Amino acid sequence: MAETLHSLTALGHSEPETHAAGPCRIAERFDVALASLAARKGREADVERAAKAAGVPLPGPARWKDGAPYAAFWVAPGMWFVEAPFASHEDIVAHLKPAFGDAASITEQTDAWVCFDISAAELSPLLERLCNVDFPGAPDGFATRTVIEHSGCYLVKRGPGQVVLYGSRSSARSLLHALETAAASLA
Amino acid sequence: MIFNHPILGPRDAQEFVYLGDASLMRRPDGMTAGIEAFHDWLYNRDNPAGEHRELWYHEQGDRSWLVVTRNTVTHEVIRVELARDVAKAMGRTK
């Protein structure tokens, strides 16, 4: 009998890693299913209607909106990333597709990204070393694409000391290294 | 340079990549406009010292194409529009 197969996290282990660096706690998230949702041409009203019925929030530009089971952040005009609990929505596209039909293009994104929860009393000193986001000036629920160490990331501000960061999965270890190095320099 | 993005507000020019002269949006019909017009569109560019309309792509942002009007002498950014809106104003459907 073959050994049971286990999926690996973006950092390559069976369990997500948590690191303490300087004043920051960096926790890999392994419990988020992710999909992109893009309204097809001329179908914006249909997408809005379907999203309302399915309970998918569609926040405005540069915003993240929480919800259960779906949360979402804006990535482009007419396009969002939808988050859901991995345990209940592992196949997130299969959950979303019936709700939106042919009004939207939905693409699985879960395994394309590494997700880090970064927390500290105050994250501005860390983020001003890493990227060009005006973090202190951004409201809670601010979501944007940005560049950290030459790598494109999505940054969601949950609060002054709480950030969710999506980076490309293939660069997960490099992104963690950048975060840890910058965080260690704060101490 | 800072581009005042029509949707996202002021953004650093580092987030964008440059494609070229905004006249690229006016591609003549290669089958009917004649070889001269097509050659002109493909190879000939003005190189003004002053106001210039350019196509920029917000690669590290919302992936939108923009038409940026800027002064090549002073680097002043005069106007930033979504290329989509500019194309629609030109009578295009996409």
Please tell me about this protein's structure.
The complex is a heterodimer of chains A (187) and B (94). Chain A has two domains: 18-30 and 112-184, Gyrase A, domain 2, CATH 3.30.1360; 32-110, Heterotetrameric sarcosine oxidase (Alpha-Beta Plaits, 2-Layer Sandwich). Chain A contains five helices and eleven strands. Chain A has helices spanning 44-54, 86-89, 92-100, 124-130, 172-184; strands at residues 18-21, 24-29, 32-39, 64-65, 71-76, 79-85, 104-108, 113-119, 143-148, 151-159, 162-168. Chain A has a six-stranded antiparallel beta sheet with strand order 1-2-8-11-10-9, with helices on one face. Chain A has a five-stranded antiparallel beta sheet with strand order 4-5-6-3-7. In chain A, 36% of the residues are buried. Chain B is globular and about 40 Å long. Chain B is an alpha+beta fold. Chain B is built from two helices and six strands; from the N terminus they run βββαβββα. The model of chain B has no long low-confidence stretch (mean pLDDT 93). The A-B interface holds A 41, 61-62, 75-77, 132, 144-147, 152 and B 7-8, 12, 14-15, 59-64, 94.
Give a quick set of tags describing it.
heterodimer; A: 187 residues; Gyrase A, domain 2; Alpha-Beta Plaits; 2 domains; six-stranded antiparallel beta sheet; 11 strands; globular; B: alpha+beta; Folate-binding fold; two-stranded antiparallel sheet; 6 strands
